[in-house]
From TrEMBL, chains A, B:
<protein>
    <submittedName>
        <fullName>Cytochrome P460</fullName>
    </submittedName>
</protein>
<feature type="signal peptide">
    <location>
        <begin position="1"/>
        <end position="20"/>
    </location>
</feature>
<dbReference type="InterPro" id="IPR038142">
    <property type="entry name" value="Cytochrome_P460_sp"/>
</dbReference>
<dbReference type="InterPro" id="IPR032033">
    <property type="entry name" value="Cytochrome_P460"/>
</dbReference>
<dbReference type="Pfam" id="PF16694">
    <property type="entry name" value="Cytochrome_P460"/>
</dbReference>
<feature type="domain" description="Cytochrome P460">
    <location>
        <begin position="35"/>
        <end position="158"/>
    </location>
</feature>
<keyword id="KW-0732">Signal</keyword>
Amino acid sequence: MLRIVVACIALLAVAGSGSAMDRPVAPNGIALYSGYMNWKVVAPSYREDKGHIRIVTGNEIAVAALRAGTKPLPDGSVLAKVAWKAEKHPSFPVATVPGAFAQVEFMVKDAVKYKETGGWGYARFLGNELKPYGKDAGFVKECFGCHTPVADNDYLFTRIVTVP
Amino acid sequence: MLRIVVACIALLAVAGSGSAMDRPVAPNGIALYSGYMNWKVVAPSYREDKGHIRIVTGNEIAVAALRAGTKPLPDGSVLAKVAWKAEKHPSFPVATVPGAFAQVEFMVKDAVKYKETGGWGYARFLGNELKPYGKDAGFVKECFGCHTPVADNDYLFTRIVTVP
C-alpha cells in the first residue's frame, strides 16, 4: 500500500511539473516564464527601427523595487519585454497598435549567479514557436553589451511609468 | 457611551472614505478609479498625431471577458487608457518611451445606466491635476461619436494582445 502511495505521489509530481518541462529554455538555462502577461506594467515603448510595439512587465519583486526607486533591483526580480509587430489600426490609422506577436525577452536578477553580466541573466524567445535565441550561452554578451551604456541605472533602459 | 460609539463609527467612516471623496469626478459622475496601474495589460499603443504613448489596462471583469472573447463586455467591466507624452529615449533614440503623464481615460460598462452611449460610460482626467474633461455631462457625445465606427467590437478600438 505504501509503495502505491509513493508511486502515486511521484507520478503526480511529474504530471504537475509537465508544463514547466515543456517550456522552451534559453542556451544559458533560463526557461520561459509563464504568466508574464499577468504581471504589472513597467512601461510601454515603440521601436521605430524594428517596427515593434512593446510593453515591459515585472514580477512583484521587480515592480515593488522599481516603484520604491530601489537600485540595484533585488535578487528574484524578473522583467519581461514583450514585442508585437506594430501596425496601423485598421479603423484609426493614426494609432499604431500591436499585431502579431514578435518575441518576449526576460531579465532575471541574481547578483551572484549572473555576476559577469551585471547581475542580470538574459533570455529571448522568438515568434509563435518561442524559439530560444542564441547558439550557445555566449549569446548573453550581445545582450549585456547593448545594456552597458545604462549600467548606472542597473542596466535597465526602461524606467517605470508614473501617474499622479 | 452608545452615543460616543456611534459618533466614533461615523467619524471613522468619513475618515475611511477620505481618499474616495478626494478623487476627481467627471461631469457625468464617474470618479477617477484608483489602482488602474495594478490592472492587467490589454494593449499598448502609440498615437503619432498626439505624440502620446499609451497602455490600456482592464479590471478583472474586463480582462477575463476580453481573454475569453466575450462581447459585449459584462457590466462592471472597466478599461483605463493611460497616456504619457512620447519621447525619444535619451540613451537609445530609436526607442520611443513614456515621458510626462498626459491623461487617463476610463470606459465603464453598465448596459442600463449608459444605454444611450452603447452601454459605456466615459471619463477623462487631464494632466497631473487630473482635471475632469468636459463642461457638462454632454461631453460624452464626443467620446461616443468617436467610438461609433467600432460599434461592432462593443465600441472598443483596442483589442487585447495575445502571446503564444
